[in-house]
Structure prediction request, 120 residues.
Amino acid sequence: DVQLVESGGASVQAGGSLRLSCAISGYTADTYCMAWFRQAPGKERQGVATIDHDGVTSYADSVKGRFTISKDNAKNILYLEMNTLKPEDTAMYYCAGRGTAACYWSGFGYWGQGTQVTVS
Prediction:
């Protein structure tokens, strides 16, 4: 079974930083596309960042230059480094896996339970 378990969410002040982690089991991060999504209360789920099997990354315009997605293939962990956090970054953040090597913003079949990030 595929399991994605996020951690690292917290309450921080605007301008602060956080690093989210996603521990992956039953799925190989270095073979498939991985991503971070987020969902704020009353809003639709939004794609934040993707990373493909070759490590090529893509970001939502709202986080470019502030967030960095990366993965440790040896440990099978996905990360999201978030800097210069803003109140509008407040959301539940989800790790997601797509059963293809190439990345798109849809078609993710594997999801974690989420970790809450609150920026005030």
